[in-house]
Design brief:
It is built from three helices and ten strands, in the order ααββββββββββα. It is an alpha/beta fold. The protein is elongated.
């Protein structure tokens, strides 16, 4: 009986010890702080703005000037600089680099350069294919002057004015307009003026007729 009691006692102690250890472990687990706080969202806020709603740059601000109108019988003077033709005269092109010139078809013009930068320059007028128009070109020279000017009648095949050895930088566009367009505009204005005059005459005639009718009615009333 003693052997059985000892065995039972040892078994009970083992069980009791195991339960105690388990309880301690459970207690430690309960003592650990619980992190109830939510972790911050690292994602960046979504931009709800539609990219299409963003203002687009005004194309007009980036567009180059269409061109500078030059009246017929005008002398066009440049300064010959390797970095580009610099406008001198008329005042509309003064200070402009490689300005686009709007010429009237059939108009007479003179164009060239008087002062340079010491490099050799010339001036030529090209068509769209880069060919010289009507032999309009000068000889290479380090200084400008009368021999560096071209006299010509503007024609529709003219596309550019160029310094041949510096065609990459000393080049400007030519736009040739139809002179008849202005004539047509003037004719339209004259027709409009004539129509306005006719309408005014009709109004005057109507007023005179109405006045005569009123006078006639007054006379009849007087006779009665």
């Amino acid at each position: 009986m003693r052997g059985i009691d000892d065995t039972t006692r040892r078994h009970v102690l083992k069980v009791t010890g195991g339960v105690g250890i388990a309880a301690m472990i459970a207690g430690c687990a309960d003592d650990e702080p619980v992190d109830d706080e939510e972790e911050p969202d690292d994602e960046e806020p979504v931009d709800d703005e539609d990219p299409d709603d963003e203002e687009e740059p005004d194309d007009d601000e980036n567009d180059d000037v269409d061109g500078i109108e030059i009246e017929p019988d005008t002398e066009i003077v440049f300064e010959g600089l390797t970095q580009g033709w610099l406008g001198v005269e008329p005042e509309e092109i003064e200070g402009e680099e490689n300005p686009t010139l709007v010429l009237e078809e059939g108009g007479e013009y003179e164009m060239g350069w008087e002062e340079g930068d010491g490099s050799q320059h010339n001036i030529e007028i090209w068509d769209e294919d880069g060919e010289v128009v009507d032999d309009l070109e000068t000889e290479l020279a380090e200084e400008g002057g009368e021999d560096q000017f071209l006299e010509f009648e503007a024609s529709e095949e003219m596309a550019q004015y160029v310094c041949e050895p510096h065609e990459g930088t000393m080049i400007g566009d030519l736009e040739i307009t139809d002179g008849d367009e202005e004539v047509d505009d003037d004719e339209d204005e004259e027709e409009d003026d004539e129509m306005d005059d006719d309408e005014e005459d009709e109004e005057v005639d109507d007023e005179e007729e109405n006045g005569d009718d009123e006078n006639g009615n007054d006379d009849e009333n007087d006779d009665e």
